[in-house]
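Continuing the series of single-chain predictions for the mutant panel. This is the parent chain; the variants come on the following pages.
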Amino acid sequence: MDNKNAFSKILILVIIAVLVIGGIFVWQEWLKSDLRLKIKDSRLPKGIEVIEQGDKKIVKNKAEGYEVTVPKELGRIEGIGGTPEKPERGITIYGAMPAEGVRPSVSIRIFPIPSEVLFDEWVQNTWAVEGGEPECYVLKEKRKIKDKESIIMQDQCSYGALTSYFLVKYNNKIYEFSGSSEDLIIKTIESFNFEL
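Parent structure:
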């Protein structure tokens, strides 16, 4: 009788373990499908699609001809904003809102420029002026990121904190990257594919 009783207890424990493990697996799959639904159901800007490859998420902008692997530091993608009728305003990829602090995000805008225009000159005379208050924007540094010439400008008039804009020249376009942290912006640029 003791063997049957012991066997019954072991069988019950095995069944409970299988149910718990199965429940965890189903819950994880549900979270993934919930993310896909949120992204697919949101109103994505024209030409934008989100591709999931395992835990990697790639935002592909067919209209502008680039793709970016979303840095893990952004966390779960909660949305992609943009103005479909005005693609020149760019897109913003939003991460999940933390319990406290700043919601992680990265914005990307593209400006076509004539080939004869100098990068530095365009940044000082066009980009900063179009921003509204050219006296607010100061050169922070110049450096190469992913073998691309980059100019980092800082907006000293932003509300609350200094905002940095990373401007990267590639072919006859200038890509403007901004976001919730410089680290996140740099990782975005490093994962950025300038040509599809």
